[in-house]
Amino acid sequence: MYGGSSLEISQNVMIVSMDEKQGDAIQHVLEQSGFKNIVTASGSQAAINLLTDNQFDAIVCTVDLKPVDGWRFARIIRSGALTVKSNMPIVMLSDGYSERIALATSKAFQINCFVPNEKFHTLPSVLSDLFRQNNPGAPKSSLLIIEDYPDTVELCKRVLSNRFDIDVATTGKMGLDKWMTKRHDLVLLDVMLPEMSGHQVLKEIIKESASQSIVMMTAQSTPERAAQLIIDGAVDYISKPFRADQLRQVCEIAVQRQDFIVSNKEFTEHEQALHQEKELAEITLKSIADGVIRTNALGQIEYMNPSAEHITGWNLAESKNKPLTDILRCYFDNNNKPASSPIDVSLNKQATIFS
């Protein structure tokens, strides 16, 4: 039982999935943890129909929904078109390994939490944490505004508060100290500041974190000045006075850049890890006495280890892309008559064959 109180497990949860087995597995995991009020929907349209007449406390859905995918389904919920709680938690399940991509997309579509499919067993604790929060809301990127003019601060907060969790500093030194403590996703930095100029703050932050996304605000914009700010590390700048839509667009692009940098780093690390695993696997295969042959779904050879080369009399270079039946034929022991290839049987039945 999670949480341990009848109040926590009485929450109404909707599961939305096109895969009946997946929906049943999610429901089973939740029920095993004490959730009792669970409803399943077999697609986004069925879910919308249920939301029209019923109130739910949380939604667990997958990305691959029809007729509207999971992301657009979440946007419909957050748009206010349905009579649901504005802060109702939405948990999204999907394939994927990049935590940063998941987090960035979750923020853009106002998803509370993103869970990889292989970790669906963590859903009870995820929902438990969300229910324990008074107002979970949707995740936001963090923004530090370093600006000493109150009217500009209020404008920025009014325009950006729906997208960002905002901190404010009114001097350059205060801004640098706040950033050092929290390392915000985005910094909106004025050039003219007391105690320490915005240009100095920019250089100090970039010295500490070269990939930090910083947008400069300046009332004295010239092409030369803008170019120097970019050279010194800013990702963009905006000239005062600015319109609300200009500010919103510049900040959105800047924070997505940071997400891309981190996502690209995660992808590179993942590729390197896969390469290392492949090298270790090949070392193992080359060392064992058993013959190992790998084919594609068409039965064409992709790999043979040295033992398989010795057994078949073929080397990998000669056999690559050839049908397995050209290299290895199967016969019955008792009469030497041709037998069906276990590879063909395995592929046709989509099953593992043991012999």
Q: Can you tell me about this structure?
A:
- 47% of the residues lie in helices and 16% in strands.
- By secondary structure, the protein is α/β, with parallel strands linked by helices.
- Helix 2 links the parallel strand 1 and strand 2.
- The chain has helices spanning 6-9, 20-32, 44-53, 70-78, 99-109, 123-132, 150-160, 172-182, 198-208, 223-231, 244-287, 306-312, 316-319, 324-327, 342-349; strands at residues 13-16, 38-41, 58-62, 90-94, 113-116, 141-146, 164-169, 186-190, 213-218, 236-239, 293-295, 301-304.
- It has 3 domains: 6-132, Response regulator (Rossmann fold, 3-Layer(aba) Sandwich), CATH 3.40.50; 141-262, Rossmann fold (3-Layer(aba) Sandwich); 288-349, no CATH class.
Give the SSE layout:
Layout: H1 6-9, E1 13-16, H2 20-32, E2 38-41, H3 44-53, E3 58-62, H4 70-78, E4 90-94, H5 99-109, E5 113-116, H6 123-132, E6 141-146, H7 150-160, E7 164-169, H8 172-182, E8 186-190, H9 198-208, E9 213-218, H10 223-231, E10 236-239, H11 244-287, E11 293-295, E12 301-304, H12 306-312, H13 316-319, H14 324-327, H15 342-349
Parallel strand pairs: 1-2, 1-3, 3-4, 4-5, 6-7, 6-8, 8-9, 9-10
Antiparallel strand pairs: 11-12
Helix pairs in contact: 5-11, 7-11, 8-9
